[in-house]
Every structure is written in structure tokens, then in C-alpha cells.
Model the fold of this input.
Amino acid sequence: MPNTAESQILAFVRSRYPQAEITGDQDIFSLGFVNSLFAMELVMFVEKTFEVTIPNEELRIDNFRTAGSMAELVGRLSEELAA
Amino acid sequence: MTIVTQAPVAQETSPVTDRASARAFVDTFIVPYAEAYDQAGYIPEELLDRMAEAGLWAPFLPEEVGGAGMDLVTLGEVHEEVGRGCSSVRSLLTVHTMVSWAVQRWGSAAQRQKWAPALAKGEVLGAFCLSEPGAGSDTSGITTTAVQSGTGWVINGGKKWITGGQRADLYLVFARTASSIGAFLVPRESPGVGVRPIDDMLGTRASMLAEVTFDDVRLDADALLGPSGFTAGMVLTGTLDLGRYSVAAGSVGIIQACLEASATYTSAREVGGSVLRDLPLIQAKLSDMVTDARAARLLLAEAGRLKDAGEASTIMATWVAKYFASTAAARHASEAVQIHGANGCSPDYPVARFYRDAKVMEIIEGSNEIQRITIAGQADREVTS
Ligand SMILES: Cc1cc2nc3c(=O)[nH]c(=O)nc-3n(C[C@H](O)[C@H](O)[C@H](O)COP(=O)(O)OP(=O)(O)OC[C@H]3O[C@@H](n4cnc5c(N)ncnc54)[C@H](O)[C@@H]3O)c2cc1C
Done:
């Protein structure tokens, strides 16, 4: 898999839950993984790795459901940063 | 009530910018009076003011709001030094740190502008209100509610064991909303806020604990801090993370204080013709104190380094640091009392206070049991093959 934002996010989720089989379009909430500790780790990982700040209004469940939706959020925030 | 008198006012206060200046501040203004604070059950305003003068309250806030932009490794060192002198003062610092951090991390520009400068200067002191008579470890059991009313909120409920609650100006209150748990900034003077002091605790006796009640407290919309919805829990997680970091630092300070008191005592006290420190069983205790002080300090520094780098792994590193440091503090405080014999049980030596304070460290910001449950969740992630 190429080193896209999605694959990096997936790798992070898998490193936290080594036993889980997760794909980029799978709803991680429906798998029951997400507690507030992991949510915090996820936000920190995304902010650090992609050098973005996620504003409060973007901290919505739909942006974090799948590795794909998180990658989309990253893309959007990076574009805003570049603009 | 015992009245605590402070150091001569003539003494100048220098800014606290690192471990060395923190140590000097603590040795001058805190260590000589810590026993008296403990017995009186409060910290005098004069010390709180001096801490403000020294820039101790929230030096990690950015310079533009009046902080010093201090990195978190240094902040950990500063809190360790304060904890070495007095866990009650360090507790007040911890909860103020939590509130200040939450405002900085999750506040809107307007909320930051409203609160951060006063928090940085220590003009407004913060307290953290999560626990309730019926909900401690299980935070999902809180019953305090925040109901939307017009554009604002109405808060009802009661919080217990609130460090600094007697003195604080601003409460960060966690309350149940229609969809999740929200964090609310509640000024103490809001109509409907009640404060009842809690005295005579086992440890951190001067940390001015209170029960804080909210009876139809009406707040504007801007009282809600941070995101709502599924990530609202992150405000709590993040705030507790910083509190845990500070308590870990304070616990390292307790170990260091036990070590220093025990090293001094064992080189003076003679039994059966030899000084205590020459006895192998006493040496075993001292060697463990030296080792654990260093180990705990390193775990803390690593958690701080990861925070400064914005690494997600800081959260678990902080759990581990707090678990190690708090349990080691309780163990060594017990041994420090043992080493001092009857003197250790008296108010003439500080180790009895360390012993009582150390026990509290095993309960607050995630009890031992909760720490072990959380850290056990890390086990799978540590498998490298
Ligand atoms: C000095 C002091 C200062 C404090 N300051 C504050 C403050 O500023 N703000 C605030 O909000 N709160 C504060 N607290 C409250 C503190 O956070 C709680 O005491 C703590 O979270 C534990 O909750 P609890 O006392 O209700 O114990 P409980 O949750 O009732 O737990 C009782 C015992 O059961 C154990 N236990 C709980 N769950 C489990 C489990 N699943 N498995 C095994 N064992 C378990 C606990 O570890 C504990 O030993 C303070 C407490 C003290 C003593």
C-alpha cells in the first residue's frame, strides 16, 4: 500500500489494536475500539503526523469513522493551510 | 483555626523558570512552613501571591497570554520541586494547571482571551470538578446535569473532593448534557454556586478541599469548553492527562523528600554505637529510594518529552509514570517513617506528612487499580514480534 495519509492512519490504528483486522473504509466505532483515550491519541497522531490543527468544529464523529474519512479531513485541513 | 505566618515580606521573589529557580523558591518560601500549612489546613494568601509573582501558576501558557511558554519537561521538574516541599501546594498547582491547559487547548479564541491572561498571572485560580459523592473512578456515573436553556446552560448537581474548591475563582465542571459529558467554565461568583469546606483529610491537608454545589446555575453559551459530541470526552481525557503528569511529578518530589530526610537522619542517628546509615537493612532502604527516585524522574521526563513533541504515546507514558511514581512514593514514605522510628511518627519531622500525602497520590487522578487496568491494555501493544 502506498504511503498515503489513509495508510499511515490505518497503521496507527493497527499498532494500537494489533489483533484487529481493519480496512480503510471500516467504521472503527462500530468495532467498539474507540474510547476517549484512544480518540485523544488519534487526534494527537493526526495533528503531529500531518502537521495540522483540528479545530473543535471538525471534531465530529463523521470525520473519524474510518481511516478514509480521517484522511479526507487531513486533506481538507492541509489545503486550507496551504491556501 | 491555626494562623500560619509567612516568611518576612521583605524577601524578594525571583521568577521561577527552571528546576534550580523552583528549588530556591520552594526552599525559601515553602519548606520552612509546610508543616504549619498542614496543621492549619490551608495555604495562606501570601504564598499564593508569591507564586503569582514568581510566575508559577501557569508558566506553560504562551507568552502572548502572559505565560512563559515553558516546555512540559521543565514544568514537570518545577512541579516535582513544589511537591518535594509541600504536596498541598502542589495539588493547588495541579488543578490550576489542568484548568489553564484545558482553556488553552480547547477554548475558542474568545474563551482564551477571557480567561488565559488571568489564569497565567494567577489572578484567577482554577479548580477541577469531576468527582461526585456517587461517582469517582467511574466517571460515566456523574449525575450533574447541564441543560440547554435559550442560548445558554443551566447546571444542577454537586461535586465532592474538589482540590482548591474553597479558594478557586473558576471551576471547570464536568456535567452530563443531552448527548454526552461536557466541560463548563463556571465562575465561583455565579448565583447558585455553593461551597462547603472539607477539613481533616488524611493527606494534602492544606489543599483546601470543598464540596461544590450547583443549584440552577445559569451560564452563557460560552461556558461550554471544547467540542461537543463524541470527542467531548477528550477534554476530560486530556485534562486528566496533564493532572496525572503533575501528580506524577509531585510523587517524584515526595520520593526525593523522603530520600533527603532519610539520608540526613541516618547519618546523625546512632543505634548500638553505629550510625543508622551503616546498617545493611537501612542501606537497603536508602538504595531503593535512590534508585526509584531516578527511575520515576526518568519516566516523568520521558512523558514530558513526548508531550513537548506532540506524540500520542505521551498519554500511556504518563499513566506509567504516575503509576510508578505514586506507588514508589507511598512505599518510600512508609520506609522513611520506619527509618525515623518514633520521631517519624511525630510532627517534629516531615516524614509523617510525606507518608499521609503519598497515600493520596495512589488515589487521585486515576487510582492504582484504574491505572493498572489501563496500563494492562498496553500489554498487547508491547509485543514486538
Ligand atoms: C485529597 C483528594 C483530592 C481530590 N481532588 C479532586 C479534585 O480536585 N477534583 C475531582 O474531581 N476529584 C478529586 N478527588 C477525588 C478523586 O478523583 C477520587 O477519589 C478518585 O477518582 C477515586 O474515586 P472514589 O474515591 O469515588 O473511589 P471509588 O471509585 O468508589 O473506588 C473505590 C475503590 O475501588 C477501586 N476500584 C474502582 N473501580 C475499580 C475496578 N474497575 N476494578 C478494581 N478496583 C476498582 C478504586 O481504585 C478504589 O480503590 C480527590 C480525592 C482526594 C482524596
User: Anything to note?
Assistant: Chain B has a mean pLDDT of 95. The interface with chain A takes residues 106, 108, 226-227, 229-231, 233-234, 236-238, 241, 309-315, 374, 380-381, 383 of chain B (CB under 8 Å). Residues 79 and 202 of chain B are 21 Å apart (CA to CA). The beta strands of chain B are 126-129, 145-149, 152-162, 170-176, 181-187, 193-197, 210-219, 224-225, 270-271, 274-275.
